[in-house]
Amino acid sequence: MAHITHANAKFTPAGRLMPARCVVDDGWPLRRAAERFQTSVSTARRWANRYRARGRAGMVDASSRPDRRPRRTPTRRERRVVKLRCTRRWGPARIAGHLGMHASTVYRILTRYGCARLDHTDRATGRTVRRYEHARPGELVHVDIKKLGNIPDGGGHKVLGRPQGRKNRSKTGYAYLHNAVDDHSRLAYTEILADEKKETAAAFWQRAQAYFASAGITVERVLTDNGMCYRSHLWRDLLTDQQIKHKRTRPYRPQTNGKVERFNRILLEEWAYARPYRSETDKREAFQGWLHDYNHHRFHTAVGGPPASRVPNLSGQYS
Description:
It is a single chain. By secondary structure, the protein is an alpha/beta fold. Helices cover about 40% and strands about 10% of the residues. The chain has a 5-stranded mixed beta sheet with strand order 3-2-1-4-5, sandwiched between helices. Helix 10 (about 235-240) links the parallel strand 4 (about 220-225) and strand 5. Helix 1 (about 15-25) runs antiparallel to helix 2, helix 2 (about 30-35) crosses helix 3 and helix 5 packs across helix 6 (about 105-110). The protein is elongated and about 95 Å long.
């Protein structure tokens, strides 16, 4: 770990310059300069010699990096590592196994060449995804629908095994999670509904907009995908009446709506697939508690706290 000291402290660049100037510019003997500045003769000699050779620039600490590194990975092999990352989108462990190298070495090479993390790149193009965050709550709200299979009474395949689970599930149907996530705070409003029709989506948004308004958030823009319900006149007229601008993602680019897509993944990992439920009722009863925890208590790394920490007017923040 590098040790950083104050720029004017003794024997940092400014402190080294004084004995060096006394010896070189003023002609002091080395011993006298060493006694005056309370250092050894060898140290005074070293700074004087560096001052003669390089002037003020010689007072700055030199890099500790060696001039030669005979054990460094050959450039040709480093290029193979980068090529595999760019063409096949492999991680360090897989590249290391393919080339017979240590994964830590591959990781350092990728870092040195400025290769982005795989989860920060677009799968289709390999380009780095541009991260953004709007400056205030309500400036943009991401809206999406997640389709999930219902759990039959008695449990699905996680409880009963796959053969019986498939048999039980044959008539259970699906649930549709309508989600709205604020871009700035990641505050989420979600309902489990029976379909994704335009009337259902419009009614959901009316309740979502009322929820955000109750938290003191004025929604300015809404971003959705190109689903049929979001292309309807009903959806368009609803947002127009609320003076909300509607934006749609580019076709086949779900990462454009990335914040709600990330919320969907959290929702699946931490609620829907978090434990084996024995019925759809059990799963839905657990949902409201999970959503409250997500909004009010769960630490979100991109926010630096729970979403509620960025929404001062949100009630129940500490309940």
